[in-house]
Design goal:
The protein is mainly alpha-helical. It is built from 5 helices and no strands.
Amino acid sequence: MAGRSGRRWGGLILLGCLAVPASIAGSMAATTPAQQQGLLDARKEWTVTSYDRRLEILRTHRNCVQAAQAKAALKACRRQAKQAKRQLRADRLARLNAVRRELGLPEKQPKGSRKAKRRRQQRALESA
């Protein structure tokens, strides 16, 4: 009997794995080849133009860590680097959303933090 239920679950897991790529492909099917090329060009342009900013974030963080004399200073370095990366992601999203608007595509929304998502899920479980 255990073998039969194992096969049943295996089929469900396989079905779930097959459903994910289909959902991803479905969201890309709505874009035309010209729109896809425009997005690709924008991503490539952002990657090249933001290279110096990304490098500067790494250098600043390394220098901060090397200069840190206490645990609190090390934490401040980490916070500063996280904030700089967060700003870089926000700038990327703004740039790509501008391109998406030009191409007639819907804008992407910023992703929330994992911590906030976990808190919302915890509250939902507690209220249920």
